[in-house]
Amino acid sequence: MKSFLITCIGVFILVITSCSLFESRSDPALHDSIEIDIDENGITDYTIKYSNVDIEPISISGGTFGIIGALHPNGLNEILRKAGERSLFLRNIDNLKETVIEPLAWTSSFSRTFASITTTNAEGDWPNNWEINSESDHSTYFYGLKMVADTDIQLAWVEIEISKNDGEVSIVNKGVL
Predict the structure, then answer these.
(1) Are 160 and 146 in contact (CB under 8 A)?
(2) Which of 104, 128, 132, 169 has the fewest CB atoms lying closer than 10 Å?
(3) What does the pLDDT look like over 40-81, one tens digit per residue?
(4) pTM for this predicted structure
């Protein structure tokens, strides 16, 4: 009877421990969108959005799935990109110019991903940290922006901070040049 009781207690502890481990693991959050009004005129110029992505939906391992956070231009607004570089390359906003030459280009047709997290199996074994879309690690990151309204063009920027733990972004500062 004593060994049966010890076995039951051991199984109970194992079940409780397993349940608490399972409950503490969860899928990464799909954060709310953030609207950015750079010039504070009441019109949203850019939007930060998080979305689920099927990177490789059919594979032997069950697929590769993820969540990305991206900056989207609204209307005719544009985002500065640099060919061959990750999205968060800008460090000096003094170099923002209306007309740029290769490898720089202004684009309004694509969003720019700032962070992502992926899992490579159906069980959702997510990594502990999000990947920041930058070649180097900084405490904050900048986007070069071009706001286009009719014939009026304004160069602008937004400085963001990204949590590696949960991928959540916060606006640190923004401005018009």
Answers:
(1) no
(2) 128
(3) 999 999 999 998 887 665 555 556 778 889 999 999 999 999
(4) 0.77
